[in-house]
Design brief:
The complex is a heterodimer of chains A (288) and B (287). Chain A contains 2 helices and 12 strands; from the N terminus they run αβαβββββββββββ. By secondary structure, chain A is of the alpha+beta class. In chain A, the strands form 2 sheets. A 9-stranded mixed sheet of chain A has the order 1-9-8-7-6-5-4-3-2, with no helix packed on it. Chain A has a 3-stranded antiparallel sheet with strand order 10-11-12, with no helix packed on it. In chain A, a hairpin with a 3-residue loop joins strand 2 and strand 3. The N and C termini of chain A lie far apart (109 Å). With 287 residues, chain B is of the alpha+beta class. In chain B, 12% of the residues lie in helices and 26% in strands. Chain B contains 2 helices and 12 strands. The longest helix of chain B has 20 residues. The chains are: A alpha+beta (288), B alpha+beta (287). At the A-B interface, helix 1, strand 3, strand 10 and strand 12 of A face helix 1, strand 4, strand 10 and strand 12 of B.
Chain lengths: 288, 287
């Protein structure tokens, strides 16, 4: 009997120790996938050219974007303008953020920092970093309380889809945008009403720990139907990654004036970007 | 003497503890609670101007910055240029990264994310800057790419011996420029050999007050310049993080070294009295 009481006492004492430890360990990061490190866009065999929105196809016409006729015409005009030397529907020439969903292409190296409240997606590019809020907040009752942004406002939730006790999928929904935003560098447009809703499933497969996928579905009034693409990312096998600081404005040789885009020459003067482009209107200067 | 049953129970519970301990790879209770949204603390009464570097003094000449005579002249030229309508040495006007140390003045809210290997400092001002303060025990790499934010290595200290870290000591090096101290355009040396040391810690009596004692060692200065920055935590459960897209609607156009205004109709306007229009030598046609 004494032995049993002794056993019970010891068990209770040890259990108390466990409980005492638990509150001190508020962030159990082993519940989350190990996404530490430097991620880059995965390459798909046979896909060439600049980064495409649907990474399984070349950019431009092969994307077969489900655009409404009106927006198909806008995109074709953008392609024509770019062929003539313009920036045609790609707002990033002026160091504006590509915004969502294009930032998830991604153009620079990506780091994913997970805390219980937020998953931070840090991308070294123009202004591409995001917060996916996982703190249990709901969509605000007054949507005017959220300032529209290029990245939008993302609320997410973690799931353990294979039941192994560890989250493997982050589902996120993003709303409240501003523009202009394009899907890619060819200027495939999103609607200027900026009513896009973007749903993502960011999935980590523990059997392929250095791969990550992001299934992105964009619902937008420029599209005839939701457009779903599957992005893939690869983790670089580097112990201490080099994070390049990109400051777009530092060496930007494009200047936008009154809706026209010009180049800056090496000697710092304006140059035409298109054949026979007229110079900017200087009506406000008292010229000699 | 413990019974065999007790020893067995201890063994089972010890195994359980080990399992639990292994699962909790990161004990965030060992670190100060820096979660939330931080903003620049209200300055003392009488302090004026935009984001002074030393927050206890008004910006500009009132800072009494220990500048070398050469950089005092550079500073005075910046003030004169600003008085004439220019941006002087304030690179933020061009939407360039202002970098360290002025980014820690907090022109926009700051988030601090503490993980064992890295403390991240996110400030969305001009660009989506994210300082990485490496606390993984690394040594200074031999070859670091210079940057506006610099390369930061930090160490957590338990200065009060309470079994919990309370102070982050940071050293930052390997810069590029130009970098100003503050919007008056007071500049750091163009050799970019700056070394910045910080001690970041919560106030002992006010958990929503954060201190950053910052010392800048730079060849534009006659001696190390130490200032005491303070940040206050916003009392909001679900912070909203504004996106600052500097180039959007800045109203300024830079062509070479000259700055112009963008008129309401988008056309260029002079930014200062008597300013000449840009040189259009590369255009064949006239508007």
């Amino acid at each position: 009997m004494f032995g049993y009481r002794n056993l019970m006492g010891t068990t209770l004492l040890t259990a108390a120790l466990v409980l005492a430890c638990a509150p001190a360990q508020a962030f159990d990061e082993s519940k989350y996938p190990d996404l530490k490190g430097q991620w880059v866009r995965a390459r798909f065999p046979g896909v060439v050219g600049q980064p495409a929105y649907d990474p399984t196809r070349n950019q431009g016409a092969p994307q077969q974007a489900p655009l409404k006729p009106e927006f198909q015409a806008i995109w074709e005009a953008n392609v024509k303008d770019q062929a003539a030397g313009g920036q045609g529907g790609d707002p990033t020439f002026n160091c504006l953020s590509p915004g969502m969903p294009r930032v998830m292409t991604p153009y620079g190296e990506m780091e994913i920092v997970i805390t219980p409240e937020t998953t931070h997606i840090l991308i070294e590019h123009i202004h591409d970093s995001r917060r996916i809020l996982t703190d249990g907040r709901t969509w605000p009752k007054n949507k005017d309380s959220i300032d529209p942004s290029f990245q939008g406002y993302s609320i997410g939730k973690w799931f353990d889809t294979d039941g192994d006790g560890r989250y493997d999928t982050l589902e996120a929904e993003t709303r409240y945008f501003k523009g202009p935003r394009a899907f890619d560098a060819t200027g495939i447009p999103l609607h200027p009403d900026n009513q896009s809703v973007i749903k993502e499933k960011i999935h980590w497969d523990k059997t392929k720990p250095d791969e990550l996928t992001d299934e992105i579905t964009t619902i937008d009034n420029a599209l005839t139907r939701p457009w779903t693409v599957l992005k893939k990312y690869e983790r670089r096998k580097v112990a201490q990654p080099d994070w390049f600081e990109e400051v777009c404005t530092e060496d930007n040789s494009h200047v936008g004036i009154a809706g026209e885009v010009y180049y800056l020459s090496a000697d710092g003067h304006l140059m035409p970007a298109k054949k026979d482009q007229p110079p900017p209107d200087l009506r406000y200067f008292k010229q000699k | 003497m413990l019974s065999r049953g007790s020893i067995g129970a201890i063994a089972v519970m010890a195994a359980l503890l080990t399992t639990v301990g292994g699962a909790f790879a990161f004990d965030d209770a060992q670190y100060p609670n820096l979660k939330g949204q931080w903003v620049r603390a209200r300055p003392p009464a009488g302090v004026t101007g935009q984001g002074p570097f030393d927050p206890d003094k008004s910006w500009g000449l009132a800072q009494q910055a220990p500048l070398t005579p050469e950089y005092q002249k550079v500073f005075e030229a910046s003030l004169a240029d600003q008085a004439a309508g220019g941006q002087g040495g304030w690179t933020g006007g061009r939407c360039l990264a202002i970098g360290m140390p002025s980014m820690m003045t907090l022109f926009r809210p700051m988030e601090i994310i503490v993980l064992p290997e890295v403390t991240y400092i996110r400030i969305d001002h001009i660009r989506d800057s994210r300082r990485r303060i490496f606390t993984d025990g690394r040594a200074w790499p031999e070859d670091i790419r210079p940057s506006f934010d610099g390369y930061s290595i930090g160490h957590w200290l338990d200065t009060e011996h309470k079994g919990r870290f309370d102070t982050l000591e940071v050293e930052t090096r390997s810069f590029k420029g130009p970098r100003p101290f503050e919007p008056s355009g007071m500049s750091l040396h163009e050799d970019n050999h700056t070394v910045i040391k910080e001690r970041i810690y919560l106030d002992k009596s006010e958990p929503d007050l954060l201190h950053n004692d910052m010392t800048v060692i730079d060849h534009a200065l006659t001696r190390p310049w130490t200032v005491a920055k303070k940040y206050r935590r916003e009392k909001t459960e679900f912070p909203i993080w504004p996106e600052d897209m500097c180039v959007e609607g800045s109203g300024l156009v830079f062509i070479g070294n000259d700055m112009y205004f963008e008129g309401a109709d988008g056309n260029l306007m002079p930014a200062r009295k008597g300013q000449q229009p840009p040189d259009l030598r590369y255009f064949k046609t006239k508007k």
